[in-house]
UniProtKB/TrEMBL annotation:
It is a single-pass membrane protein. The keyword Membrane applies. PANTHER family: ATP SYNTHASE MEMBRANE SUBUNIT DAPIT, MITOCHONDRIAL, ATP SYNTHASE MEMBRANE SUBUNIT K, MITOCHONDRIAL. One of its GO terms (cellular component) is mitochondrial membrane. Keywords: Membrane, Mitochondrion, Transmembrane, Transmembrane helix. The chain crosses the membrane at residues 35-52. Pfam families: ATP_synth_reg. It is found in: Mitochondrion membrane. This is Up-regulated during skeletal muscle growth protein 5.
Length: 62
C-alpha cells in the first residue's frame, strides 16, 4: 500500500495551525473559503459605506 498526499478534501489535515493561521490558510479548503468570505465582506463593507454616507450639503453664499 502506497501512502500519497494528494490535493482534495482532507489534504490539509496533517498541518497543525495555531492562532489566526488556523482560520486563514491556503492549505485547507476551509482556510481558503475564509479568505474568500473576508474579501467579499470587505468589498461589501466599502460599498455600503460609500453608498450610505450622507451627502454634503451645498453651501450658498448670502
Amino acid at each position: 500500500m502506497v501512502n500519497s498526499f494528494m490535493a482534495g478534501h482532507d489534504s490539509g489535515t496533517h498541518h497543525q495551525f495555531t492562532g489566526i493561521a488556523k482560520y486563514f490558510n491556503s492549505y485547507t479548503i476551509i482556510g481558503r473559503r475564509n479568505y474568500v468570505l473576508a474579501t467579499y465582506a470587505g468589498i461589501t463593507t466599502l460599498f455600503l459605506f460609500f453608498k450610505l454616507k450622507p451627502k454634503k450639503k451645498a453651501v450658498t453664499a448670502s
